[in-house]
Specification:
This protein is α+β, with helices and mostly antiparallel strands and about 700 residues long. Helix content is about 35%, strand content about 25%. The chain is built from 24 helices and 33 strands. An eight-stranded mixed barrel has the order 24-25-27-28-29-30-31-32, surrounded by five helices. The chain has a six-stranded antiparallel β-sheet with strand order 2-1-11-10-7-8. A five-stranded mixed β-sheet has the order 4-3-5-6-9, with no helix packed on it. A hairpin with a 2-residue loop joins strand 7 and strand 8. The longest helix is centred in the middle third of the chain and has 22 residues. The radius of gyration is 41 Å and the shape is elongated.
C-alpha cells in the first residue's frame, strides 16, 4: 500500500553497532538478533526473533494506519527478555508517536509518525528535483543569498533566487535549528533558532560541536544521511546531516532531545539500577553476566561470581532500628564500588545481599586477594547514631566453568558457597565445594521431607534403659526419636535432631514425643510391667514455649500417666540462656509432680551454677568425660568430683555413653551407681522394650 508523501512511519533503531532510520511501509516486520529478520538488532541479549511489527487500520476502508508491536513472533513464541515500552513491560502495544521500546540494556527503538514536510526533511534529505520544482538548481552563488552576513546587494537577487528565498522560508519558520555550510567549511546559512541557540558558532567555526568532524565525513557519506548525537553546553541534540554533492552544501537539521534523553536516563535508572544504592540491579547484573559468560566461553577464560551477606546485619538493625538500614546499605554500596573499581561489577541482589562479577580473567589467587580486600574494606568503622559499628561480611565464590556452565547454576553455587561458611567464621570467604554442596542438598531435601513425616506418621520412638551398676537392674528409660522414610530408609539421629531444631516443626514434634512416650509408658503399666520413669528431652525452643507447663499437664491427663513416672530433660545451654525464666518454669514443673534432669552436664554455660539455682533431681555426665575415662586420669578426677558433688547435694547421677566393660569397671570403682549406653543395651523399639522389661528386673 502506498502512503501519502507527507505521512510516514519512522522507526529509529539504536543498538551496539549503529543508529539506523527505517521508513516503515510493509505490512509486517520481524525484529531480532538473527540476520534473517527484516530489522536486525545487533545485541547479544536480544532474542533471535524478539518482536514483530504488524500494520493495523482503525477500519478496513480507512487509508490511515499505524503499527502494533508484539513480543516474539507471530507463532506465539515469546522473547527471552520481553519488551519495555515507555517504562512498562508489555506483550503487545499499539505504537504512538514518540514511543520508546527497550529490547535490552543497550538497545532501543523510537517510533515516529511524520506528518509535515519539515518533519519529513528531518529524516530524509531534500533531493535536487525538489529544488527544481521551485527554481533552478541551488548553486553556490544562490547559497550566498542566504548567508547571515549582509554582504550581498539585495538588488541583485533574481526572480529564481526569490523563489528560492520563498522556499527557504520553510526553514525560517522551523522551530528547529538548521545550519548550512559549504564543502570548504564556511557557514552559509543559520535559521533564527540556530542563531539563538548557537551564538558562538560563527566565532568557533569548525570547532563548534555542531560542525566538528563534518568535513571529515564528506567522502564517506556524500549524498547520504549522517545521524549523530551532539552536546552543546547542557543541551543534547540529534543532528541529521545531509551531504548535497550537487550543490556542495552540508545541511544540518538539529532536534533538541535533552528532555527525552533525561527521561530515558531516568527510565534506564529505574529499570536497571537499585533506587536506594544506585548500584546495578538484579536484571542488569544478569544481562552483564550473560555477556561475560558468552565472552568467557569464546575465549576459554574463567569468570568469578561472588555472593556477599553479613553475619551481624540483623543484630545491628534490631539494635539501631530500621532507619539505620538504608544508611548501612548505602555505605556498603559505596565501599564495594571503591574496593572493586573497574575490575568488577557489583549489584544489590536483594535485602542485604550483594553479588559481584569479576570482569577480568581472575586466578584463584587474585580472587582471594579481592575477597580479602572487600572484607577488610567493609570492616571499617561505620558511625550510626553516635555508635561505631563494624560490619562482618561473608563471601561465597563460584568459578565458571567448573562450578557452573550457565548463569543460573553459577549464581546458585556461589550462594551455596556462602552457606558453606562455618557459623563461627563471622567474617570469611569460601569457594564452592561440590562435596559440601551434595551434603547440604541432602540435608535440605531431608528438611523438606521432615514436614511430611509428622503427618504421615513416619516417626517412632526407641527407648534406652538406665542400669544400676551394682545390681544390673533397670531404673528407667529415655525416649529417643527415630525416623523411617519409605524411600530413604532410616534417617540418622545425628541428622534428624539438628534438622528438626532448625525448623518450626520442632515444637509439634516435641509434643508428639511427649504424648507418645507418656501413652506407651502407661500401656506398659497396663500390661502388668512394674512402672518405671520415662525421660523425655525438651528442645530449647520447646522449653521456651509459654504454654509448656500447661501442655505437659494436659498430656499427663490425656494419657493417664502419673506425673512421678515422667522425667523432663533439659540442657545447661537451654536453661542458662534466660535463668530467671528457667527458674520459674522448672519450679512450676516440679509443682506439677514431674522429675527434672540436666543433660550434657560439664560442657554447657553454667555447670555448678545450674545446681545452685535450679531444683534439679538428676544429673547426666556428658559422654565426652566417659569415652577416655580409662586412659585419662583427669577425666577420672572430674567424674569422681561430680559423683561426690551429687552425693552431697542428693542428686541422682547417671553416666551416659558407656560402651565398654573397662568403662563399667572403672565407674564401679568410682562408685557411680547408674549408667546408660550400648554396653548394656541399644535403643529398643516399644515391642522390644516390652520383651526386655518382661525378662529383666526393674527397680
Amino acid at each position: 500500500m502506498t502512503t501519502s508523501p507527507d505521512f510516514r512511519h519512522i522507526f529509529v533503531i539504536e543498538d551496539q553497532k549503529a543508529r539506523r532510520i527505517i521508513a516503515l511501509d510493509e505490512p509486517t516486520y520481524s525484529i531480532g538478533r538473527e540476520s534473517s529478520n527484516d530489522i536486525v538488532i545487533y545485541d547479544r541479549v536480544v532474542s533471535r526473533h524478539h518482536a514483530t511489527l504488524v500494520r493495523i487500520k482503525p477500519n478496513p476502508k480507512s487509508e490511515s494506519y499505524s503499527y502494533r508491536i508484539i513480543d516474539g513472533d507471530l507463532e506465539g513464541n515469546r522473547s527471552t527478555n520481553g519488551l519495555i515500552i515507555n517504562g512498562q513491560n508489555a506483550f503487545t502495544h499499539d505504537l504512538k508517536h514518540g514511543d520508546v521500546i527497550l529490547f535490552g540494556s543497550e538497545s532501543k527503538a523510537s517510533y515516529y509518525i511524520v506528518s509535515t514536510s519539515l518533519e519529513i526533511a528531518l529524516f530524509n534529505p531534500l533531493e535536487i528535483s525538489q529544488y527544481e520544482e521551485v527554481g533552478r538548481p541551488y548553486s553556490e552563488e544562490d547559497s550566498k543569498s542566504t548567508i547571515i552576513n549582509d554582504e550581498e546587494d539585495i538588488s541583485k537577487v533574481t526572480q529564481a533566487s526569490m523563489d528560492l528565498v520563498r522556499f527557504s522560508s520553510f526553514a525560517e519558520l522551523s522551530p528547529h535549528p538548521i545550519v548550512e555550510m559549504d564543502f570548504t567549511g564556511k557557514i552559509i546559512y543559520l535559521n533564527p533558532p540556530a542563531s539563538i541557540k548557537f551564538k558562538t558558532i560563527q566565532q568557533e567555526g569548525l570547532d563548534h560541536p555542531v560542525l566538528t568532524g563534518l568535513l571529515n565525513q564528506v567522502q564517506n557519506v556524500r549524498g547520504n544521511l549522517l545521524l549523530r548525537e551532539i552536546q552543546v553546553k547542557e543541551e543534547i541534540y540529534e543532528q541529521y546531516v545531509h551531504y548535497l554533492a550537487e550543490t556542495q552544501v552540508i545541511r544540518s537539521y538539529l532536534c533538541d532531545v535533552t528532555q527525552r534523553k533525561q527521561a530515558e536516563k531516568s527510565l534506564a535508572q529505574q529499570t536497571f539500577y537499585d533506587a536506594l544504592t544506585g548500584l546495578p540491579n538484579r536484571g542488569l547484573f544478569e544481562e552483564q553476566l550473560a555477556i561475560a559468560l558468552a565472552k568467557a566461553n569464546r575465549d576459554n577464560t574463567p569468570v568469578a561470581a561472588l555472593f556477599l551477606n553479613f553475619a551481624n546485619y540483623s543484630r545491628m538493625i534490631n539494635a539501631f532500628g530500621l532507619d539505620s538500614s538504608d544508611f548501612l546499605l548505602k555505605t556498603v554500596a559505596q565501599r564495594l564500588s571503591e574496593a572493586l573499581g573497574a575490575d568488577g561489577l557489583v549489584c544489590r541482589w536483594q535485602g542485604e545481599e550483594f553479588v559481584i562479577l569479576l570482569k577480568s580473567s581472575p586466578s584463584p589467587e587474585q580472587i582471594r586477594a579481592v575477597a580479602e580486600n572487600i572484607l577488610q574494606t567493609l570492616q571499617g568503622i561505620i558511625e550510626v547514631s553516635g555508635q561505631s559499628l563494624h560490619l562482618k561480611g561473608r563471601l561465597g565464590i563460584a568459578l565458571y566453568p567448573q562450578d557452573g556452565a550457565d548463569a543460573a547454576t553459577l549464581l546458585k553455587n556461589a550462594h551455596t558457597a556462602l552457606e558453606q561458611i562455618e557459623p563461627q567464621n563471622s567474617s570469611a570467604y569460601a569457594f564452592f565445594n561440590p562435596k559440601l554442596a551434595s551434603k547440604a542438598n541432602l540435608l535440605f531435601r531431608l528438611e523438606n521431607l521432615l514436614y511430611e513425616a509428622l503427618d504421615k506418621r513416619q516417626f517412632y520412638l526407641t527407648y534406652q534403659p538406665f542400669i544400676r551398676v551394682s545390681t544390673s537392674q533397670i531404673t528407667g528409660v529415655e525416649a529417643l526419636l527415630r525416623w523411617r522414610h519409605p524411600e530413604l530408609g532410616e534417617i540418622s539421629p545425628v541428622n534428624l535432631i539438628p534438622l528438626a531444631e532448625k525448623t518450626d516443626l520442632i515444637v509439634p514434634i516435641g509434643q508428639w514425643i511427649l504424648e507418645t512416650a507418656c501413652r506407651q509408658n502407661k500401656a506398659l503399666q497396663d500390661q502388668g510391667i512394674p512402672p518405671l520413669p520415662v525421660t523425655v528431652n525438651l528442645s530449647t525452643r520447646q522449653f521456651k514455649q509459654g504454654d509448656l507447663v500447661a501442655s505437659v499437664a494436659e498430656t499427663l491427663e490425656k494419657t493417664g500417666l502419673e506425673p512421678k513416672w515422667l522425667t523432663l530433660e533439659v540442657t545447661e545451654t537451654a536453661i542458662m540462656d534466660d535463668p530467671s525464666y528457667s527458674q520459674t518454669i522448672l519450679q512450676q514443673l516440679r509443682e506439677l509432680g514431674v522429675n527434672l534432669s540436666l543433660d550434657d552436664f560439664g560442657v554447657g554455660l553454667g555447670s555448678l551454677s545450674c545446681l545452685q539455682q535450679f531444683a534439679i533431681q538428676t544429673l547426666k555426665i556428658h559422654e565426652s568425660f566417659i569415652v577416655n575415662l580409662v586412659n585419662q586420669p583427669k577425666n577420672q578426677s572430674i567424674v569422681r568430683a561430680l559423683l561426690l558433688l551429687g552425693q552431697s547435694l542428693r542428686i541422682r547421677i547417671i553416666a551416659e555413653g558407656v560402651e565398654t566393660l573397662e568403662q563399667v569397671e572403672r565407674l564401679r570403682e568410682l562408685k557411680c551407681e547408674e549408667v546408660q549406653g550400648y554396653w548394656f543395651s541399644h535403643p529398643l523399639k516399644i515391642a522390644e522394650l516390652t520383651q526386655f522389661l518382661s525378662q529383666s528386673s526393674i527397680q
